[in-house]
């Protein structure tokens, strides 16, 4: 078959995926290493789980004939189990906690970092494979575990390079919202009293509560639009509906006005101090037992954090954290970066959230049938890296290796000996392994590798027992805009004795 008829694969990444090269990989690793140091200091252990889980274990998606396991990348294993790539790091933790429950300490504190995969429609900045960085405590129902996660998250952000004042960890509680809904129902019933015996009234109140709680997720999504549409817009969306900027009408949820009043109080409860915010929330939940329990938990978290020196400048009680509340059973938290960046159209905007989490006490119950309390947080690795880039705080070294050039093929052993000495001294180095015929190509290679120094030894240098060190970084600066004085003070090329190779290279690297 001729080459013209051979069907060759396209050299391109699949849609929704991307490749990461040198500096991107080392930058991410450097950031994650700093976060891991914080987690380790808090007593958390690392955990690496399989990238593949059974669909039954994942528990969120089920096989489908036309498109199996929409939302995950899945396949059937030898006509038995459906398998899938993990879509987060929490589902594998649930399986591990159940599978090894007799061997693991309780509570079990772990952190995990790695890629996850989601079979979703990709878009700008939205990929089907991305990194997550999680920390969870399984087996503790104490709010001290929630407070610890919040403190650890604040410390991790600062360790990664986000300065104090550029972030805030906001804490809320799902129980408070449940209390708001209960209180709203009670107020509706009191405004329009029900006649009849106590059993009838009780059933009516239960029906009313279920009606509001049945649209809790819709209410959550509406409250989450507070920053975009303001309090007036939220009220419109909760009641009769509103027109958006394009003129399109968005139907409302038809929540009774007296119930909306309680939801507005909930949204506006945030104050300058945690103490005042908690007091405002107590008024908002009214006589709701579950609501009062949620407020008590927030008060305990604030007190535990204050005892460790975490004030509202770093971690604060904030009812505006509503995204994802439907998944959680208690405290919920979100790390928001407070500085502004410029978008693609040149407009200033807040950077926004880079991490979120909370208490989810049904984690292991699917496997064991027994309730197991758990709380944890997940950091969006790519989002945090983008924030560090925006603030100019990426510190990963992208300097390439010292390149030992090859002037004579027959003397390759000599060149490899030089590289061996440099490496033994802890200096990153490599020998040029391409075609050495064109020396210019060797220097172009060194430039492309971002090499700081090229080591050159031709026949004359070998006879005199010397090597030439070419300072590629300074040479590039001189070629651009260095002054004559700089050139005279520090030439971009130097000849040293072969025996002084390591010391001379180190001096040149130290000069930067």
UniProtKB/TrEMBL annotation:
The EC designation for this entry is 6.1.1.21
The residues listed in the UniProt record as binding L-histidine, with positions renumbered to this chain, are 88-90, 118, 132, 136, 323, 327-328
Superkingdom of this entry's organism?
Bacteria
Q: Name one Pfam family in it.
A: tRNA-synt_His
ATP-binding: is it a keyword of this entry? yes
Classification via InterPro entries: aa-tRNA-synth_II, aa-tRNA-synth_II/BPL/LPL, Anticodon-bd, Anticodon-bd_dom_sf, His-tRNA-ligase, HisRS-like_core, HisRS/HisZ, HisRS_anticodon
What is catalyzed by this enzyme?
Answer: tRNA(His) + L-histidine + ATP = L-histidyl-tRNA(His) + AMP + diphosphate + H(+)
Query: Does the UniProt entry include the keyword Protein biosynthesis?
Result: yes
Q: Which residues form the Aminoacyl-transfer RNA synthetases class-II family profile domain?
A: 1-401
Q: Which Gene3D superfamilies match?
A: Anticodon-binding domain, Bira Bifunctional Protein, Domain 2
Its localization reads: Cytoplasm
Which GO BP annotation is one of this protein's?
Answer: histidyl-tRNA aminoacylation
The family classification in the record reads: Belongs to the class-II aminoacyl-tRNA synthetase family.
Q: How does it assemble?
A: Homodimer.
Checking HAMAP family in the record gives:
His_tRNA_synth
Can you name this protein? Histidine--tRNA ligase
Task: Say which species the protein is native to.
Answer: Pseudotabrizicola alkalilacus
